[in-house]
Amino acid sequence: MDQVLLQFTARETDEGRFLRDFLQRSKGISRRLLIRAKYSGDIQVNGETVYVTYKLKAGDVITITLDEEESETLAPEPMPLDIRYEDDDVLLIAKPAGLVVHPTGMHLSGTLANGVVAYWQSKGENRKFRPVSRLDRDTTGLILIAQNQWAHDQFSRMQKERTMKRTYQAVVHGVVEADEGVIHAPIGRKETSIIEREVREDGQEAITHYKVLARGDDRTLVQLQLETGRTHQIRVHMAYLGHPLLGDDLYGGSMEELERQALHAYRLEFVHPRTGEQMEFVEAMPEDMVRVLP
C-alpha cells in the first residue's frame, strides 16, 4: 500500500515556480527521492497526478506518496523498547547499555534494529531501519530513528549543518581542572586495531565541547556536546585529555566500579523536519552511572 509521505501548500511567493525546484530547493527533497516517487509512487497537485515541470499556483496542494522500501533483510525480533516519542517521521528511543544498534559481523541478531523492525511489523508497517545517530553498545540514552527516507535526508542535512544538538554526560577519571573547553583533535583508526580509534594528524576532523558539572576527589562529571560524530569520539577525546571514562577499559578507564563506559546520551535538540517545531528531549541518567557520580 502506498504511504502518504508529504503534503505541502504553495504560497504566493511560489507562484510560477517549477514543482521540481520547489520540492528540491524549498522542501529538501532529494533527486533520488523524486525519482522513487515518480516510478514507485505518485506526485499530485490538487489531487491530480502531475510532472515535476508543473508550474505552481498559489494555494496548490502538493501530495507525494510512495511505497516504502523493503526493511532490508533484518529479522524481526520482538523486544521491549523504551519509546520516548513517535510520529510519522520520528522515532525516539532510550537505549539501554549492552544493546547493539545495528547488526555487525560480531552481532548478527538481537540488535535494536531487529527490535524496531519487529515493532513496525506488529503495527502492519513496512519501513527501513534508518538510525540518524548511533550509540556504542554500552552507551545509554536517546537515539533518533527516521521513519522514512525524506526525514532521514533532512536529519542528515541538519547534522552536516551542525544544527542538531546532541548532549552527553560522562563520568571521567581524575579532576578536570578547566570549567569548560573545546577539544579540536582529529580522530582516525589505530593502525594496530580494527576497533580502537586515536587522535592522529591524518584523522577526520573531530570537535567536542565539554563543561564540568561536578568534581570529586578522583572523578569528574562532565557534560559534552558534539559538533562532529566520529566513532568513539567522546571516549577518545577525554582519554586524550588524560581523563578516560570510568568503565572504559579500551581507552584506559578502570572497570572496578562500572563494567561499561560511563557515557549517557542525555539530551537531543532538533527542528522537526515536517512541522518546523523546535524539539527537545531529555533522558535521565541510568542508575549504574548515578552510583558512580562524584
Mind explaining what this structure looks like?
The chain has 294 residues and is of the alpha+beta class. The chain folds into three domains: 3-66, Structural Genomics Hypothetical 15.5 Kd Protein In mrcA-pckA Intergenic Region, Chain A, CATH 3.10.290; 69-155, Pseudouridine synthase; 166-265, Pseudouridine synthase (2-Layer Sandwich), CATH 3.30.2350. It contains six helices and 16 strands. Strands 5, 6, 7, 8, 9, 10, 13, 14, 15 and 16 form a ten-stranded mixed beta sheet that branches. The protein has a four-stranded antiparallel beta sheet with strand order 1-4-2-3. Strand 11 (187-189) and strand 12 (197-199) form a beta hairpin. The longest helix has 13 residues, at 149-161. The protein is elongated, with a radius of gyration of 22 Å. The termini are far apart. The model has no long low-confidence stretch (mean pLDDT 92).
CATH architecture of the largest domain: 2-Layer Sandwich
Low-pLDDT ranges: none
Biggest β-sheet, characterized? 10 strands, mixed
What's the CATH C level of the largest domain?
Alpha Beta
- The N- to C-terminal Cα distance equals 54 Å
Total individual domains: 3
Number of helices: 6
Question: Which fold name corresponds to the CATH topology of the largest domain?
Answer: Pseudouridine synthase
| Secondary-structure element string | EHHEEEEEHEEHEEEEEEHEEH
Radius of gyration: 22 Å
Q: Roughly what fraction of the amino acids lie in strands?
A: 25-35%
Reconstruct the topology from this structure.
Layout: E1 3-9, H1 19-26, H2 31-40, E2 41-45, E3 48-49, E4 61-66, E5 82-86, E6 90-95, H3 112-122, E7 130-131, E8 140-146, H4 149-161, E9 165-173, E10 180-184, E11 187-189, E12 197-199, E13 207-215, E14 219-226, H5 233-240, E15 263-271, E16 278-282, H6 287-290
Parallel strand pairs: 8-15
Antiparallel strand pairs: 1-4, 2-3, 2-4, 5-6, 6-8, 7-8, 9-14, 9-15, 10-13, 11-12, 13-14, 15-16
